[in-house]
């Protein structure tokens, strides 16, 4: 079912979809999307030179004012233009990475740090001390009864 289509008109599977001309960049229904047994078309590589911001807002069920739509359309077009610039780069032979910089040894050594306060001062502020070097705390977990 589509945002502009009442629930009563929505049918099962791909039959509830509007014609392929409604898709701004998909070029039709993705492979395997039809559950009714009809052949489906394989989605083409998206043409991202222009995507209608109102279409995206409809998919997200977001209402936009005309001013918001104009502002977001300009921002989306700028993002897509930048993506087109990135596509022009020659990345043949480059290994895919998850981070821009190599990450090695990101964890510090597990070593004790110097105490911020002397032990005597900490124990002196405790409500109850056990054995001269431990703070007594209230019972949080009670033993299970049989």
Structural category is: mainly alpha
Classify the helix fraction into a percent range: 10-25%
The low-pLDDT segments are 1-35
Oligomer: single chain
Strand content: under 5%
Q: How confident is the prediction overall: mean pLDDT?
A: 74
Number of strands: 2
SSE order: HHHEE
N-to-C terminal Cα separation, in Å? 56 Å
Provide the spatial order of strands within the biggest beta sheet. 1-2
- Overall shape: it is elongated
**Separate helix tally:** 3
The main sheet comes to:
2 strands, antiparallel
* Rg value: 30 Å
Q: What report would you give on this structure?
A:
- The chain has 146 residues and is mainly alpha-helical.
- Among the domains are: 1-46, no CATH class; 48-88, Histone, subunit A (Orthogonal Bundle), CATH 1.10.20.
- It is built from 3 helices and 2 strands; from the N terminus they run αααββ.
- The protein has helices at 53-59, 66-87, 119-125, and strands at 129-130, 134-135.
- Strands 1-2 form a two-stranded antiparallel sheet.
- Strand 1 and strand 2 form a beta hairpin.
Which helices and strands, and how do they pair?
Blueprint lengths: L52 H7 L6 H22 L31 H7 L3 E2 L3 E2 L11
Antiparallel strand pairs: 1-2
What structural keywords apply?
disordered N terminus, mainly alpha, two-stranded antiparallel ribbon, Histone, subunit A
Brief overview:
By secondary structure, the protein is mainly α. The chain has helices at residues 53-59, 66-87, 119-125; strands at residues 129-130, 134-135. Strands 1-2 form a two-stranded antiparallel sheet.
